[in-house]
Every structure is written in C-alpha cells, then in structure tokens.
Amino acid sequence: MLDETVKNIFSYKLNYIIIPLIIFLIIFSFIRSYQASFVHDESFTYLFFVQKSLSSILSFEHPSANNHLLNTIFAKFFNNVFGSSELSLRFPNFLAHIGYIVFSLLLIKNVNKKIMLPAFVILNFNHKYSPSACCGDSNTSQ
C-alpha cells in the first residue's frame, strides 16, 4: 500500500519541481544544522537536560517548558553516539524535518494536481525562518 502511494506521488510530472524542492529543503536544513551557532534554548536544553541521566529526564526531575521529552532523549542519544556538537544535538530535529516533508507529501497526494505545488510550498516554506525552522534559529534579524 505504501509502495503504491509513493509511486502515485512520484508519477506526476509536477514532481520535476517538487523533488528538487525536497532536495533543497533537506540540504539546506543539514547545512543550517551544521553551521548555525547554538541559540539560548538549545544551550539550555544541552546544559540542563541532555547531560542528565535518562531517568532524570523521564521523571521531569527539574520541570521546564524547555524539556521537550523526545527531542531531549534523542539529543542525549546522538550526543552519546557522536559526541557534543551542534550537528549531533540538532540531528533529531533534522530527522523530524525529513519526516515532516514526507508526511506533507502524503497529506497532499490526494489533492487536485493543480494545487499540489502550492500546497507543498505552503506546508514547507510558510514559516518565518523556513526552511531553517529545523535549527531553531530564533535570533534571525527581523
């Protein structure tokens, strides 16, 4: 079933535009994840949660609105596997961005082909900092 859905998504000639947009989004997100400096929230998460034990993270020993459970757990995992760097700590967000792209494609697969491209663009580029939203760069000048 999923194989058929993927074939339907990639069988339309409009995909000569959408596929390069997907590639651009993924490459841009990876580069931003690698090059952008940490912002306050990311530093706070690393200093106060990622370095704690897993049981401390799961028990909300130190409750904070900044402790996003899945992000913190995956950041801790990638920090343990790849070491402490901006890329390793942002990798869960990068993977989530790829998942968002995939599910946005699945969401628009049944819409009229005439609005498929605008729907994809709205879902994936309609953010103040997009496509860098995966990196949390909230210090971008207005």
The global form is: elongated
Q: Biggest sheet, open or closed, and with what strands and sense?
A: none
DSSP summary: helix tally? 7
Order of helices and strands: HHHHHHH
Rg measurement, Å:
18 Å
Give the helix level as a range of percent.
55-70%
Please give the alpha-carbon distance between the first and last residues: 45 Å
Mean pLDDT: 80
Number of strands: 0
**How would you classify the helix and strand content by structural class?**
mainly alpha
% residues in beta strands: under 5%
Give the uncertain stretches in residue-range form. 137-142
Please, how many domains? 1
Short description:
By secondary structure, this protein is mainly alpha-helical.
Name its key features.
142 residues; 65% helix
Summarize the structure in words:
- With 142 residues, the protein is mainly alpha-helical.
- It has one domain.
- Helix content is 65%, strand content 0%.
- It contains 7 helices and no strands.
- It has helices at residues 2-9, 15-35, 40-50, 54-58, 69-82, 86-108, 116-125.
- The chain is elongated, with a radius of gyration of 18 Å.
- It starts with a helix and ends in a 17-residue tail after the last helix.
- Residues 137-142 have low confidence and may be disordered.
Summarize the topology.
Layout: H1 2-9, H2 15-35, H3 40-50, H4 54-58, H5 69-82, H6 86-108, H7 116-125
Helix pairs in contact: 2-6, 3-5, 5-6, 6-7
